[in-house]
Design a protein that fits this description.
4 helices; alpha+beta; 7-stranded antiparallel beta sheet; about 40% helix; about 140 residues; 7 strands
């Protein structure tokens, strides 16, 4: 029997920038087209990039994950608004040396989450992330990592 792992998740500016990068690149590509309509259209992905940076890098919203608990029964997500959701790890999730990209499926919605213990990107505790990463690798050996 293994003990549960509680992994707190907090906002980090580096993670927010990482989440905003695709939106900002799309806005830049639209902005370089130099047509008046594409310049106006570039405001939409730019706004989405700012929202992604704010949500993941500065201040979490109501449905943002604040803690992940892993026990022998499975994964449990705690959200900013107090909900406790049972979750399953999607096969497209990736585990790296200093980061985790997780896609978590719940009965309510899907969450995409980046966890890191690297300076500038640190959004969780290093020791808990190391235990969590090890347990994921051991319990999900059939997945490509």
């Amino acid at each position: 029997m293994s003990s549960p792992i509680e992994l707190p998740v907090r906002p980090a500016p580096g993670i927010g920038a990482l989440q905003a990068l695709p939106w900002v690149l799309l806005a830049l590509a639209l902005g370089l087209a130099a047509h008046p309509l594409t310049l106006v259209a570039a405001l939409l992905p730019l706004g989405a990039g700012v929202a992604a940076f704010w949500r993941h890098g500065v201040k979490p919203g109501g449905h943002s994950i604040t803690e992940i608990c892993q026990s022998p029964e499975g994964l449990t997500l705690h959200t900013h608004n107090g909900q406790c959701l049972s979750a399953a790890l999607h096969p497209v999730s990736r585990v790296g040396a200093g980061w985790l990209w997780l896609r978590l499926d719940t009965s309510v919605r899907q969450y995409s989450l980046v966890l890191s213990d690297r300076p500038g990107f640190r959004n969780t505790e290093a020791g808990a992330l190391r235990r969590f990463r090890t347990r994921l690798r051991l319990t999900h050996t059939g997945q490509q990592q």
